[in-house]
Every structure is written in structure tokens, then in C-alpha cells.
Design a protein that fits this description.
This protein is an alpha/beta fold. Helix content is about 40%, strand content about 20%. α4 (about 125-140) links the parallel β5 and β6.
């Protein structure tokens, strides 16, 4: 079956999907932005499970349960901090999407929602980030897997427009 890709204007902590992706930092112990929102909504059990994961490298991904979230799981990935674009930032952002999808597919998950990784405090240019996100997901889904639905969860109107344009 062909998977559907969709852009939504939403708070990712409210989505009823098999996994939401967290734009975490390397400690995996919570932070600001979407990371803080996910840890607050999931409750302290999430932070406790994360404490046992020994952190995560940039571009990699690790999965936990969703606890008080509607989402069954959280896939924590660490996006690159933007340092001008010549320090491997595009490749690392691509790796975040790929490794998150790989983990979802390996665990038999059917639906997954991504925030706009790295485009907040990590300052990745949003247009380029959206292009990388959509292209990486499309390439991944070109090979059949159990994944049926991928959501690009946009917190701002500008991101929603960006993703809608790319998906049209
Ligand atoms: P990073 O450190 O990877 O840049 P941020 O959390 O600062 O992560 O920002 C990443 C993106 O997540 C930004 O586009 C921000 O607007 C968005 N964001 C923040 N809170 C939420 C939320 N509750 N749901 C979805 N997206 C969110």
C-alpha cells in the first residue's frame, strides 16, 4: 500500500499516532521547545526511561514508550545545530529522518509524526530543512514498509505553507 504524507498545523503532543518524533538534545533528558512540551505532556516516566538510554548522538534515534501521550511511542532524535551549513548539517538532518523511519519500520509502527527538527533553537534554515525532510521521507517510502502514514507536524503557519507547497 502506498503511504500518505500529510502536513498538519498542530501541537505534536496531541497527535494520536504510533509514534511522535522528538527533536531532542544529546542528553535525552529534556529541554526547551518541542522537547520540553513532549516531556511535560508524557510525564516524568518518560524522563525516567530516557535516563536509562545513555544519551543519543546527533543524527541518531532512540525509541521509548509514550506514557501519558496519546502517541504510543516517542522516537527521540537529535538534529544538528546550524553552523553555516558546511559542517555536515544537511546530511545529519537527513540522518534524523532516515533513522527515525528505520526505527519505526523495524518496530512495525504504521503512523509517525515529525516536528520541524532543528529549525527552532538549532537555527537550521526552515526552507532547506523542509526540503530535506520531504525528500528523505519520500525516498524512504519508495521501498515498501509497514508505514502507512507520515505527518509533518507544523507548529507555525509558515511551516505549514512550506510543507503544503512541497507536498502538492
Ligand atoms: P531544535 O532544537 O531541534 O531546533 P525546537 O524545539 O527549538 O528544536 O524547534 C523545532 C521545531 O519544533 C520548531 O519549528 C518549533 O516551532 C516546533 N515546536 C515547538 N513546540 C512544538 C510542539 N508542541 N509541537 C510541534 N512543534 C513544536
Amino acid at each position: 500500500m502506498k503511504a500518505t504524507l500529510q502536513a498538519l498545523h498542530a501541537d505534536i503532543t496531541t497527535l494520536d499516532v504510533d509514534a511522535i518524533v522528538n527533536a531532542a538534545n544529546t542528553s535525552l533528558l529534556g529541554g526547551g521547545g518541542v522537547d520540553g512540551a513532549i516531556h511535560r505532556a508524557a510525564g516524568e516516566e518518560l524522563t525516567r526511561e530516557c535516563m536509562g538510554l545513555d544519551g543519543c548522538e546527533t543524527g541518531q534515534a532512540k525509541m521509548t514508550q509514550g506514557y501519558r501521550l496519546k502517541a504510543r511511542h516517542v522516537i527521540h532524535t537529535v538534529g544538528p545545530v546550524w553552523h553555516g551549513g558546511t559542517h555536515g548539517e544537511p546530511e545529519l538532518l537527513r540522518a534524523c529522518y532516515e533513522n527515525s523511519l528505520r526505527l519505526a519500520a523495524k518496530n512495525g509502527l504504521k503512523s509517525i509524526a515529525f516536528p520541524c527538527i532543528s529549525t527552532g533553537v538549532y537555527r537550521f534554515p526552515p526552507d532547506q530543512a523542509a526540503q530535506i525532510a520531504v525528500q528523505t521521507v519520500r525516498e524512504f517510502l519508495a521501498v515498501p514498509s509497514l508505514i502507512e502514514r507520515v505527518i509533518f507536524c507544523c507548529f507555525g503557519r509558515d511551516d505549514l505553507t512550506r510543507y503544503q507547497t512541497l507536498l502538492a
